[in-house]
Amino acid sequence: MADTPKDIAAHLRTLDTEDDGAAYLDTQGLNHDGLLAVATELQLTRVDRLSNTELRTRVLKQAIGARNKFQGLRDW
User: Fold this and answer.
1) Fewer CB within 10 Å: N-end or C-end of the chain?
2) How far apart are CA 7 and CA 69, in angstroms?
């Protein structure tokens, strides 16, 4: 059984790189609605009209890239 959008979002937040996140998303086999549900869990807005590729990129950037950026600022 596939993970819930909440579980997927939580797991993405633990990964170190967006490449790791992309590989994880590949294993989940999400369609557009599934990606939208994950985006909602990550509190992304105005994403319902994005293509799958752009939506996936935004999800990865929010879950992993933003966290890594914040961590870098915190270490600075």
Assistant:
1) N
2) 22
